[in-house]
Every structure is written in structure tokens, then in C-alpha cells.
Amino acid sequence: MIPDKAPQENVFHCSEDLKKESHIPSFEKYKELYIRSIENPDEFWGAIAKDFFWKTKHTGQFLDYNFDVTKGEIFIKFMEGATTNICYNLLDRNVHERKLGDNIAFFWLVECSAKRYGRKTGRDMRVLYLMISITIDYFWFKEGNEPGDDLTVTYKELLQKVCRFANVLKSQGVKKGDRVSIYMPMVVELVVAMLACARIGAVHSIVFAGFSAESLCERIIDSKCSLLITADGFYRGDKLINLKLLADEALQKCRDKGFPLKKCIMLKHLSKEPEAAGRQSPPAKRACPDLEVPWNPDVDLCWHTLMSGAADECEPEWCESEDPLFILYTSGSTGKPKCNAASCCRLLMVSSLQGVLHTVSGYLLYVAATFKLVFDHQPGDVYWCTADIGWITGHSYITYGPLANGATSVLFEGLPTYPDVGRMWQIVDKYQVTKFYTAPTAIRLLMKYGSDPVQKYKRKSLKVLGTVGEPINPEAWQWYHGVVGEKRCPIVDTFWQTETGGHVLTPLPAATPMKPGSATFPFFGVVPAILNESGEELEGPSEGYLVFKQPWPGVMRSVFGNHERFEATYFKKFPGYYVTGDGCRRDKDGYYWITGRIDDMLNVSGHLLSTAEVESALVEHKSVVEAAVVSRPHAVKGESLYCFVTLNDGVAYSQALEAELRKQVREKIGAIATPDYIQNAPGLPKTRSGKIMRRVLRKIACNEKDLGDISTLADSSVVDELFRNRCATTARV
Ligand code: 6R9
């Protein structure tokens, strides 16, 4: 499957210098280790496990599993019988055993204020803002919000903070196995909160701070959390987000639904006095007159008051390998009945969350190994991942992977294009960043501004560049490689999912010749296959469903509270395989190319949304009878949302209604899901059995007249009508 020799034509190689210091310096070495990882996983993962601390050794096999639904329940067990603590391995081990206590874990900085830099005016800034809030909402980093709002946190300091907060959680009655929701901006305290949970064996469920109150409420209820950790507010660009207000709204919704949460710990991020901040993320140096911090004395507790009374030491809870570590929600869809005034009890697609569950030992080893080898981590590196911790990329490659390696990272709370589009490279120079990891959507956005803002900065420190979240188009790859990396830095195009825990298809920087747009080959322990519609494995060059034949340590273990759903979503379609939901092509050299989602998911700026979830939010509006959402390609975001809505009889379509619908989707799901196009659709193309023909709607959205076979269409006149009334204008941006 993996060729013996790497191809030499039409590929990019890394520099000889990089090869010299690399962990895996050649393709031959990669292949040799890959074969060992598949043929003898015990030995392969056993060698990696030696770097970590185990309170007790494992007793069974390294990896035990069933991937075949026809043979019984799906399970994955890794290092059964071993006990450890992931927080101990990230912090205590680095401080006490590896003597890295004074090394910097994070350079934190917040985005620069427009005031200091001189605000841009007019359309330029508006476009930038909209682009920012829509496309890269979640790409912000942990520098502070004003120049000078920065902070370094050493491993020793992080350990102390985490122990204190772990004691705080214990004092509030949080125990091993309890779920804790975290709804915070990119502050150091977010890392502290998640690791404090891990230290006491509690299960964190981080909800991205860009999500709405409704989304937070759904996640709190689904995971049956006992406590919420949040912050007063934060700035996104110049926009103040009153986070506590949203958190309170979510808690009220929880109460209304019969799930009252007893406690909410709030960090004063914007409202704290500078002198009280001490060595915590500094407050913004600007006034926040509009900050609203509602306070409910029955529920709310102040982070700072609790921390000041907490002890510096906290014995970790020793966890079993397969104890839960965290839940992270992705969107899915199920049919659920709903009534409204216009039509009673229709069956409607209602979003149903999937709490992806990861467990302790396998996740630790997998994120540690992928971080070390994919970014070729070396002492002295300064690493920067621009994702938000609220997504899996932040979990695995800001918190767990880098800290497991004792790495130094940049954590930036600002926006990468604010106050200007050179911001990323300014930070790269400031901290001499060596390894840089971002999303294709951010690259495409920056590309629009040309090479000048990049070339204003030196970027000499950069060695490896990475991408994640969606396929990177070859043009964006070439720009990233040529302009940003000056043809000197290999690009690791890492394909993976919330469910896979870490990279599963990826180049290794010094070993894999790169092809622009290909995620290349499997990581160690990962066995991909391409299946056709009948579930047959295709050999050689081919295209079909991307599946995996056996587990690797970091794969999800279940859907929280719903193992049946786990089996149905990932294992039912093709028994014996984990089904990714992505399409894939393998070329003559054995390289894998992801072609995109093949289910009803959309990838907007690297973030997966289910079309059903957006449809559900639209149909909840009293004027809407039916909605169908499809994807339309977008130059920056990858995909955008094109929504067709059918209104109740007698309701007229208007701009005001359109604005209401947009608002409704934002409130139900979050800004990332804001519809780009909404079209009034008095009729939708349906089959005779009543199924909406989304394939036809996608063509209408893109104005492609060649509809293919539409013989099953019940009434073709609706198609002409929809073509006539297409949203011809560009997206709302
Ligand atoms: C890590 C993350 C997962 C989906 C995945 C695929 C797409 C991610 C990609 C990529 C092509 C890459 N995806 N990385 N497609 N090339 N390098 O993004 O997790 O939010 O769960 O999304 O993202 O479609 O199935 P998640």
C-alpha cells in the first residue's frame, strides 16, 4: 500500500538541514516504522509509553478491539489495567523528572487594540470584520488584546495553578467521573481549568466561546454537567462579547428544561483589577464600559476568591487507561417530531449532539506521538497553533500534545487579521516561532491581501508549516509554501477528525515528499482503505469512501451516553471498518487525497456543520414550513450555506424575515452557522416519495444547469422557478 520508494517527480522535498535533525529523516525509515507499528503494535506503542509515568503497568494486550458490528459490540481498549494521570504526565513529570519547570509552557498574548494601531475605516474594515467573524471565528491565539497584554507561564507555574484549581473543584464537590462544562475565551485559565479536571479525573466538556446560549444549554444537559466554568467577557476584535450574560442565559434555559445547574465559577478576565490579577492572564488595558456581569449569588462563584484560598498541592487521581478524559461535541442529525402553529407534529430534522468521548491512556500516547513526529518537535522550538481550544485541534495540539512533549507554545487571544493582516507574521517574528499550524481558510483569507503583509516580516525562524480542517487547494498550498515558508518549510497537511483524536493521514516533514493538496500517507498504527458503494476494498489508484481497518490509540471510544449511536454512525455502513464520512482518492503513488464530506455535513472554515441542524433552526421559525440547506463553494471559507425556505401560506417573503432567520440560526447554533444565502422556495424539488433532491438544490445554488438524471423528480416546474429566483448576489459578506 505504501510504496517502497518515494516518488521523485512532481513532489516537494524538505531541506537537507531539516533532515539532519529530524526524528524520522527518510521515507525508508517511515516505512520501516510504519510496518512495525502495524505488525507489532505492542512493541511500537510500548516504546512510546516508556516516556510516560504509569502508576501501575498494563496487564492485558496493548490494543484489544472489535470493529465489526456483526460480531458484537464495538469496543476499543488500550493498555488495559494500567493506571496513570494525564495531567501528571503533562506537568509534574516535566517539572520533577525532566527538570523543565522553568521552561515556558505558554507565551500568552492578546490581540492588539485598534486604538493603538490606528483604526482602519470604511469598507475595508467592515469586510475584514465580517470575514473574521464568519470565517475564522475560532482561530484566535493566546496573545493578549493590547500590546503589552502578554504573559509567560512556565511549567512550574502552570502546575501550581492547576493544582490550586483542582483543589477548588474538589472543594465544590466535583469528583472523578463528574462532567464539567467550560465556556471560556483563549486565556491561560482555560488550560488550567481543563487540566484541573483531568487531574481529579473529572471529564471536561469544552464549549467554544463563539457558540450561542442555546448551544451551551444543549451541551450542558446532554453531558449532565455538575458545574460550569466561564469568564465575564472578552473582545473579538473591537467587539465585546458578554460571555457571562450568555452563560446566564444558558443556565436559565437549563432551569426551564428541568436541569438546574448548582454552580458556575466565573473568571474575571476583563473586569478584574490589574493588581489583583497577579500572574493570571492580564486584563485588557482598555475600559470596558459595556461589560455586563450579572451575578446570581445562589449559583455564581468567583474564580479569584476561590483560588486565593486554595492549596498549591493536589495529589492526582490515578485513572484507569479507559477512564473518560473529555467529551467534545460534534453535530449530527436525527428525526424528531415537532409541533408548531401552522402544521402539527411534522417530522423534522432536529440537531442531536454527539458527545465524542476520548479516554486517558490511548489519547495521551497518540497526541504525544503525533505532535512530536508530525511537527518534528525539537528542544528550543516555539510552536504556534492558531486554533481555538474549543475545537479538537486546540485540545490535541495546543494543550495535550505540546505539553506532553514539554514544548513551548504561543497562546493568542486575538484575531489573526486584526488589526491588520500582517499580525500572524508579526507574532512569528516576536516569538521566533519555528512550527506553525493553521487552517486553509485562514491561508486563503490572507492570500487575498497578497505577499506584502507577509514580506514585511522576516519569518526566518519558521521551519515547519501545518494545515488542518479541510482540504487545502493547491493554489493556497503553493502560496503558503512559496510566500510564507519561502520554499524552505515543508507543509504537513494533516487530515483527522474530532473522532480520531489526532492526525491519521499526514506527511512527516523530513520523510514524506509532499504533493500540494494531498494528506499523503497514514500515521503509525493507522490502516486506511478505500471502499466502493458495495463495501469492497479498492486496490491501487481509486476513489471512494475513506475508512480505517483497525483502531489506533487515539480513536474515540463512544458517543457519550449513546453507544448505539456510536456504532450506527461510524460502523454500521461498512461492517469491520471505521467510516470517516469523507471521500478519498488514492493516486498511482499511493498518496491519499481527501475529496470532502460525502454525508450531509458541510465544512465551513474547517468547522463541520450538519445541514439538518441548520434546517432545524430555520424551521423552528413560525413562518417557515420547510427548509433545505446545501453547500455552495466559497473562495475563503471552503463551503458556504445556501438555504432554501418554504414559507407558511399567506406569509410574504421580506428582507426583515430574512434578517430574522439569520438571527435565529446564529442564536440557535452560533455565528459560524449564519446562512450566507437564503432563497424563498415556494416549492422544493422532491422525489415522488417526498425526499428532497439535494443534489438538484446544490446545482441551483451554484447555477449549474446540467442537472443530470431528474427522472425521479415529481414536479420539474419548481426547478425552473428556483433557477429564476436564485440569490444571484454574492454572499452576505
Ligand atoms: C481536526 C478537525 C473533521 C473533518 C474531516 C474532513 C475535514 C480535516 C483535513 C480535512 C481534508 C485535511 N478535514 N482535516 N479534509 N484535509 N487535512 O478538523 O476535526 O472538526 O472533527 O472535522 O474536517 O472532512 O472529516 P473536525
Topology:
Blueprint: H1 16-21, H2 27-39, H3 41-49, E1 63-66, E2 75-78, E3 83-84, H4 86-97, E4 104-110, H5 114-117, H6 122-135, E5 143-144, E6 150-154, H7 155-171, E7 179-183, H8 188-200, E8 203-206, H9 213-223, E9 227-231, E10 234-236, E11 239-241, H10 243-256, E12 263-267, H11 274-277, E13 300-302, H12 303-308, E14 319-320, E15 324-338, E16 346-359, H13 360-374, E17 382-385, H14 392-404, E18 408-412, H15 423-431, E19 435-438, H16 440-447, H17 452-455, E20 464-468, H18 474-484, E21 491-494, E22 528-531, E23 542-548, E24 558-559, H19 563-570, E25 578-586, E26 592-597, E27 601-604, E28 607-610, H20 611-619, E29 624-634, E30 638-647, H21 655-668, E31 677-680, H22 694-701, H23 717-724
Helix pairs in contact: 2-3, 4-7, 7-8, 9-10, 13-14, 16-18
Bound molecules: ligand 6R9.
Ligand 6R9 binds near residues 468, 471 and 608.
Structural write-up:
The structure is a single chain. With 733 residues, this protein is α/β, with parallel strands linked by helices. It is built from 23 helices and 31 strands. The protein has a domain at 605-725: ANL, C-terminal domain (GMP Synthetase, Chain A, domain 3, 2-Layer Sandwich), CATH 3.30.300.30. Strand 27 (601-604) and strand 28 form a beta hairpin. Helix 13 packs across helix 14 (392-404) and helix 16 (440-447) crosses helix 18. The protein is globular and about 75 Å long. The model is unreliable at 112-143 and 333-351 (pLDDT under 50). The protein binds ligand 6R9. Ligand 6R9 binds at residues 330, 391-393, 468-471, 493-498, 519, 580-582, 594, 597, 603, 606-608.
